[in-house]
Amino acid sequence: MADAIAILPARGGSKRIPRKNIRPFCGRPMIAWPIAAALASGAFARVVVSTDDAEIADVARGLGAEVPFVRDARLADDFADTKSVIADAVKRLALPDDGVACCLYPTAAFVGPQDLARGVAEMDDPAVRWVMSVAEYTTPVQRSYRIADGRLVPNTPEAMPKRSQDLEPVYFDAGQFYCARAGTWQDPTSAPWDHPKPVVLAKGRVIDIDSPEDWELAELVVRFLMDRGL
């Protein structure tokens, strides 16, 4: 997939962590980490940033990414969904329907070049419509509870007496990247959760950065990994 394109949806507004897409993270703008991984992967002909923000655009260009258009304001508010943003980008870039586009989140600080290359490689199979980065839950979700009338109630009672190793592994969306063909991104009837091919990420490299506390934890983990050359 030598013509695959990485698209980073990086809007300017962020209420919980202001300016988080370009806020310094371990000494570099946050968006620098996924851009560097995309460029190092060798999987993409282009690395493109879709943004409505001039400062983000300047930072992205300085990091080696392209910003060939300014995203429309209607796709940069709190209600704009990722699929619509990527569909807009592939249309603006005039990608052919069978061209592969990978949505790479600008806060995917832990994404590795090899993970992205694996995701693009999965698209070689014409039967694969979506590829999603996932991670395994660290504890069996079959043993989860809900609270009813102040008491804990097992969600899956039959799983409670079973050993952990006898329970099927369960995975969650890691929120780092999704790959699909341009035509699929623009198909309103298709969604990333429609039986995607998984790229399972290493444990410890998946942190959803939605709050200042998440940010601090993520920086600690990255510094730990860097200190050990990982």
Outline the fold blueprint:
Elements: E1 5-9, E2 24-25, E3 28-29, H1 32-41, E4 46-50, H2 54-62, H3 82-92, E5 100-104, H4 113-122, E6 130-136, E7 145-148, E8 151-154, E9 171-181, H5 182-185, E10 197-200, H6 212-227
Parallel strand pairs: 1-4, 1-5, 6-10
Antiparallel strand pairs: 2-3, 5-9, 6-9, 7-8
Please give the count of helices. Answer: 6
- Tell me the β content: 15-25%
Quantity of strands, as a count? 10
CATH level 4 superfamily? Spore Coat Polysaccharide Biosynthesis Protein SpsA, Chain A
Task: State the helicity in percent bands.
Answer: 25-40%
Strand order of the largest sheet: 4-1-5-9-6-10
CATH hierarchy, class? Alpha Beta
Using the coordinates shown, work out and report the CATH topology.
Answer: Spore Coat Polysaccharide Biosynthesis Protein SpsA, Chain A
* Unreliably modeled segments: none
Assign the CATH architecture: Alpha-Beta Complex
- Give average pLDDT, whole number: 94
Compute the number of structural domains: 1
Measured on Cα atoms, how large is the radius of gyration? 19 Å
